[in-house]
Amino acid sequence: MEITKKYLNELTYRIIGACINVHKIIGPGLYEEIYHKCLEREFDLLNIHYTSELEIPLIYKDLKIDCKVKCDFLIENIIVLEIKSVAEIHNIHKAQTMNYMNMLKVPKSILVNFNVYNLYRDGTETFVNKDFEKLN
User: Domain 5-133, what architecture?
Assistant: First the structure.
């Protein structure tokens, strides 16, 4: 299957919808791990393919650095989903999400904060890189 902007945007819509479903059922104010486990179940029910807690290799000047860098979800090998449950999103959370996207060489990432009352309006942000702009 050809990856297009349209496909990525439709998948993004499905991912955010899954997050909204989880948020509707369990609400804000819980630990990130709880949302993570519930999202795994939601993605399974929606037949959205994912890798959970993917360890990302860190290469520095052609040397693999022995450290643990993990993203919360890699969805269908093309979208990074990073989840939080924090009072507010800071620039460091955005930078982390964008770094994971670039390290994995995927065109899009989504940052979701479950610790809000309106997840769609206040709890999601998407990012794209130059690879996204090159897609049809």
Answer: Alpha-Beta Complex (3.90)
